[in-house]
Design a protein that fits this description.
This protein has 89 residues and is α+β, with helices and mostly antiparallel strands. The chain is built from 4 helices and 3 strands.
């Protein structure tokens, strides 16, 4: 994977975008990694793989009996936990 500083990417944006079409580019800021830029095709493949993994994990949970029925009460409890976690962030 190629590495490029954020400053260089900013100054040479066209070259940066072209390079990201060929392979992922690791962006650094003050010599520490801050982001990875990938092509749209690579991103779509990564998203598809993540979805497939999620479905496979869900099916494995069902097969192993690690599921519970969603009720109005359980949904409200999960929503309250979600809101509490996000309020802290």
């Amino acid at each position: 994977m190629k590495t490029m500083s954020a400053t260089a990417a900013s100054k040479e944006f066209g070259r940066f975008i072209d390079a990201a079409q060929r392979e992922p580019i690791l962006l650094t800021k003050k010599a520490r990694p801050v982001a990875v830029t990938v092509s749209v095709a690579d991103w779509e493949e990564l998203v598809a793989l993540r979805i497939e993994r999620g479905v496979a994990d869900g099916l494995a949970d069902i097969d192993a009996g690690r599921v519970s029925e969603l009720t109005e009460t359980s949904i409200e409890e999960r929503l309250a936990r979600f809101r509490a976690r996000n309020a802290e962030a």
